[in-house]
Specification:
With 300 residues, this protein is mainly α. 72% of the residues lie in helices and 0% in strands.
Length: 300
């Protein structure tokens, strides 16, 4: 690159001769460019190579998966069909979509009004309410798992289903409320005052003004909640382990691994199918996700 620039400058009649100081500066710039991008490429490979190994292993035969071969020959695409043909796998997919999809919608719908009140309303006890929300974020779920299980399983007889995990999401989530509240603080109050002058009430202001402007924050919260529900293993193990028809992919994958503990190609294929939706969702929504997470720290 430096030599090409020197040659171009030498052939330009209007350009003066290349001085030794300019050559040194260009070489330093070139070396810095190589160093920065080399670190970036190395970091990318560090994160990508495990996924590449996972995908290639999923396309190997049973015998080849136990060898040191890194490249499948031939490509066994039928491994994915065998995974889908496993009894219960499609049911796990449906249960996971229900849990992650409905749970995400309920979390966003229930958390947004609370976050709006904490960010824009002025009332006595507002700071105390915010401290209670933050304290709930610090409470480990294992602390309340026994009383919650007794309530849902013994009092309401909902063990063996996913409803004990979905219904509580309709009452808000501490982390989602806090994240949305931080984002709503970045919305100028002048927009809200203008809407109220035009005759909008609080609910209409929330729906017509705040909701369109808070889309990046809502997208970030929705992705966080979707990823959590999709990968949740602890909750389904507590409430749905006794009923295989209510298993999710995260819990069913453990059962699949136990049944195919020597078939690493099938185990890897099942893992790829479990991970693929999360990777695709994040790939298409990463711009809104990054924007929402970044803007939550603008104001305190």
């Amino acid at each position: 690159m430096a030599q090409a620039l020197d040659t171009l400058k030498a052939t330009d009649p209007s350009a003066g001769p290349v001085t030794p100081a300019e050559r040194v500066a260009r070489r330093k710039a070139l070396l810095n460019w190589i160093a920065v991008h080399a670190l970036g490429v190395a970091a990318a490979l560090f994160f990508v190579l495990p996924f590449v190994f996972l995908f290639l292993t999923s396309l190997m035969s049973d015998q080849q998966a136990l060898t040191r071969d890194l490249w499948p020959h031939p490509f066994e695409w039928s491994n994915y069909r065998k995974v889908f043909d496993t009894p219960g796998f499609l049911t796990w997919w449906k249960n996971t979509l229900l849990y992650a999809g409905l749970g995400t919608v309920l979390t966003v719908v229930s958390s947004l009004p609370v976050a709006y009140a904490l960010a824009k309303f002025r009332f006595r006890g507002r700071h105390l309410s915010l401290m209670l929300v933050i304290s709930m974020m610090m409470l480990p779920p294992q602390v309340v798992v026994i009383p919650m299980y007794l309530f849902w399983a013994k009092q309401l007889d909902m063990s063996g289903t996913l409803w004990p995990l979905i219904i509580p999401m309709a009452f808000g989530d501490a982390f989602s409320i806090f994240l949305l509240r931080q984002f709503l603080l970045t919305i100028p109050n002048e927009y809200l005052d203008a809407a109220k002058v035009d005759g909008c009430g609080e609910l209409r202001t929330l729906l017509k003004v705040v909701l369109p402007m808070a889309r990046p924050g809502i997208a970030a919260v929705a992705l966080f909640q979707f990823f959590y529900a999709w990968n949740d293993y602890f909750g389904p193990q507590i409430y749905a382990s006794e009923n295989p028809a209510a298993w999710t992919l995260s819990y069913g994958l453990e059962s699949f691994k136990g049944a195919h503990h020597t078939d690493w190609n099938l185990t890897m294929a099942a893992t790829v199918l479990v991970m693929a939706p999360v990777i695709l969702v994040f790939f298409f929504a990463q711009k809104a996700f990054v924007e929402g997470v970044t803007l939550t720290g603008v104001k305190g």
